[in-house]
Specification:
Strand content: 25-35%
Strand order of the largest sheet: 1-5-6-4-3-2
Largest sheet: 6 strands, antiparallel
Radius of gyration: 19 Å
Mean pLDDT: 90
Distance between the termini: 39 Å
Structural class: alpha+beta
Helix content: 25-40%
Number of strands: 11
Length: 241
């Protein structure tokens, strides 16, 4: 058994040694290949993600476990001032050198809305929100961060009452990579390929605002993003055949 623990939460070590037993009793948030449950310990609410595994994945000794990458990614984001769920621990169970189960534990984010909930806002609020997301993404890219699974369901948001704006936090952070240099224009544009809004005008507003903030021609930005979006959808369709 391997536990990488945020020193702030040393007191949870004994609890984490029995994470599998506790996980079985948790409140289900997501139940698919990767499963997420909420666990309550004292006054804390923990979000615990148990990663699905295949034999192929278990045999990749050279590859860092997803939960470990997530733990590191969250820490890097928070060190740069991003409002991201606080990492608590990475836990791995092994059997004869093979990974059996891995868990990534965070403090549950106070931001509870994903972009799948955007329809609950007024048209004006939706526009303000996507423009704020464009600014957030621009800052992230210029800081060298890129999320390789940047989807609307992986972006949490809520109002920032203190600054009369919006707050964001990222999920699925094992797909977040940090580069030494800012993310280039084309790569930054293509990063929007997996985002889907029901309102196409809202998606175009996001692209246009990002282009404006990075000094890019909006027509070029739209063509680049829409081409990447189409290519991604075709890739998904091909996998389903």
């Amino acid at each position: 058994m391997e536990i990488i623990l945020n020193p702030k939460y040393r007191f949870l070590h004994d609890f984490l040694e029995h994470i599998e037993e506790h996980f079985a009793t948790g409140e289900i948030v997501q139940q698919s290949f990767n499963e997420i449950r909420l666990l309550r310990v004292d006054e804390l609410t923990l979000s615990v993600k148990r990663y699905g595994h295949s034999l192929r994945g278990r045999l990749k000794f050279y590859k860092m476990a997803k939960g470990k990458r997530a733990f590191i990614g969250q820490r890097l984001l928070r060190e740069r001032g991003y409002d991201s769920p606080e990492p608590v621990a990475f836990v791995r169970f092994r059997r004869r050198m093979l990974t059996e189960r891995t868990y990534f534990v965070t403090i549950r984010s106070s931001l509870q809305h994903s972009f799948d909930d955007v329809s609950m806002l007024s048209a004006k609020e939706q526009t303000e929100l996507v423009k704020a997301l464009a600014a957030y993404t621009k800052r992230m890219h210029e800081d060298g961060f890129i999320h390789h699974n940047y989807k609307s369901k992986h972006i949490l948001f809520d109002r920032n009452e203190e600054k009369s704006g919006w707050r964001f936090a990222l999920l699925d952070v094992n797909r977040v990579h940090r580069h030494r240099k800012p993310i280039g224009i084309n790569r930054g544009l293509k990063n929007f390929a997996r985002i889907v809004f029901q309102d196409e005008a809202l998606f175009l507003c996001l692209i246009d605002e990002y282009a404006h903030l990075r000094g890019i021609d909006t027509d070029y930005a739209r063509k680049t993003v829409l081409a990447a979006h189409t290519a991604y959808q075709e890739k998904i369709a091909h996998r389903g055949r």
